[in-house]
Design brief:
The chain is α+β, with helices and mostly antiparallel strands. The protein has one domain: Gcn5-related N-acetyltransferase (GNAT) (Aminopeptidase, 3-Layer(aba) Sandwich), CATH 3.40.630.30. 41% of the residues lie in helices and 34% in strands. The protein is built from seven helices and eight strands, in the order H-E-E-H-H-H-H-E-E-E-H-E-H-E-E. It has helices spanning 2-13, 36-54, 56-59, 61-71, 74-84, 128-142, 158-166, and strands at 16-20, 23-28, 87-93, 98-108, 111-119, 148-154, 170-180, 183-193. Strands 1-2-3-4-5-6-8-7 form an eight-stranded mixed sheet, with helices on both faces. Strand 3 (87-93) and strand 4 form a beta hairpin. Helix 2 packs antiparallel against helix 4 and helix 2 (36-54) packs across helix 5 (74-84). The termini are far apart.
Amino acid sequence: MQARQAAVAFRQRMGVKTITQGTRIQKLSIHTPDDLEARCAAVAELADEIWHEHFTAIIGAVQVDYMLAKFQSAERICASIRQEGYVYLTAADTEKDRLIGYCGVVPEDDGLLLSKLYVHSDFRGRGIARSFLEELFAMCRQEYGLDRIRLTVNKYNFSAITIHEKNGFTIIDTVKADIGGGFFMDDYVMEFVLPKDDR
């Protein structure tokens, strides 16, 4: 019993949480131990697979490759954690010992920015995105003292828009951002405001 309690306490210190049988969520932050580079590389590898599978039909293969190199490389993910205050959550299938999803957030003055939330196609529809969001709702209040989460989503990423709406996000604006290389991100801005009675 003591060994099990010690193991649970260790996982909590390391930011590990089991969400369903065979799936766990783990936090990557500036406080992550020495294997941060390896874990960022694993996230980047997953990003490459998810983006080519999901976004090629939406924005084209050339822009997918450009955005992966610019925003989702292992080096860029590590830099965002170490230099910009980003925190990543990763979901892993413990039975197959592989990452199956990730999200990235950073606090801003008036809310928590959810810049990334992706789940591998083989594991969608299992509540993993919802589990990420529940963790983020708690972090938003408890760790950052904020009362809202914002995100941007491509206007033609209909499945993601539907998921976010089901989880309480609403469209509050549109934005078209020049990301270089002749490419733009044409997005909706969506927001979730935490209920006041949760404070």
